[in-house]
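Lab notes, practical 5.
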Amino acid sequence: MTDSVTINGKLHNIDVDEDMPLLWFLRDTLNLTGTKYGCGKGICGSCMVHIDGRAVHSCLKSVGQVSGKKVTTIEGLSEDGSHPLQQAWLANKVPQCGYCQPGQIMQAADLLAKNPSPDEEQIMSAMQGNICRCGTYVRIKKAILMAADEMREA
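Output from the prediction step:
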């Protein structure tokens, strides 16, 4: 029996070495390149995905560890970029280089799933493990607050 994983709602057979990092399975095998490689040590947050609804560093999980689970990448958050976080990111001009943004958005989505009304301190605490080299932290916080308002109203 072949192991499989559901990624962005689609079932995929795991036909690679089960020790392969999930990050490389996503990027190199499935061509889902929105998830970025940053540090490879779970420090920067660029590789953040959701596994069974929880934000996880994909560089630290092997593809074998996600067998039978549901993985959501930035591509699966919304097919057309209409997720309130993605829209708030654009409205607040968060991206500069943009490299860390998929991980930032996935971490923020995890936060808002757990806490639909975070205050600024809760946002800063939740986003602590996501590094933005361009320093757009103020805009990130503003975008998360905007998305939280939008999502509560919906």
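Observations recorded by the TA: The beta strands are 4-7, 10-13, 48-51, 54-57, 70-72. Helices lie at 22-29, 74-77, 84-91, 101-114, 120-126, 137-153.
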